[in-house]
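Lest this sound abstract, we let one protein speak, letters for residues, whole numbers for local backbone shapes, and leave readers to judge:
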Amino acid sequence: MRLPRAMPFVVLFAAAVAVGCGSGGVVTSYTVPRRAEATAKEAADPYRLLGVMVPADDPVWFFKLSGPTSDLTKYEGGFDQLVTSIRYKDDKAVPDFTAPEGWKLGGPRSKTMMSVTVKVDQTVKLPDPTLELTVSSSGGGVGENLDRWVGQLGHKAGPTDRSRFTKVVDSAGGKVLRVDIRGPKNPNAGGPMMGKMR
């Protein structure tokens, strides 16, 4: 019979299992530390700006949410949910969108900063009372607005910024340009179009 020939392998397997369980049935657990790269990245770029330019090809409307990277990371899923709901009407009417659960529409406002009056056409309050998403119309298209946002995060604007910090995504009303910039400088420390209330 062939069965006896397989028996030595069965015995060796059983012995190996017994040796591997030599801790006497005690389960040892340990904590895996957070990835060093993620921690280093957050330390180097403690601030973040999430934005949307609508429509993608020739933007007129600009959605902006900015603040500490750790805060924005918690709300990124809600931000992307809002982005996919955007319906662009025309260049004079604020785009329609659906605020995620727990986010509240705050209405328009104007603010004078450095002798310039900045009009915010729509605000959205997040569950974190220090965070606010703003929706504004502006000229300058992708180039001027992206340069300004990149500078607010502490980077020098350059020719590769569009490929580094933006991507075209689909919304309910068509293509929009999603912006994601991280940097060492607080974009809300000064300047127009702030996304986080002080």
Observations:
- The helical segments are 3-20, 36-44, 69-85, 141-152, 161-165.
- Residues 46-183 form one domain.
- The radius of gyration is 26 Å.
